[in-house]
Prior knowledge:
Layout: H1 16-58
Amino acid sequence: MTKTTFGYGDVHPKTGLGKVLAGFLMLLALGVVALPSGILAGSFMHRYRERHSKDEEETPE
């Protein structure tokens, strides 16, 4: 929510072009945060599964 607001609402775009540009920048900011977060989470899950599968292979039945 913080990425898509302009402070406390006292400053906001008034023209149509300003509103379109603000909307585009909001989506861009969300993508800048969401994409690296997804990559990082995927990397953690890959490492976790890799380590977990090694533990299962080493455990005798």
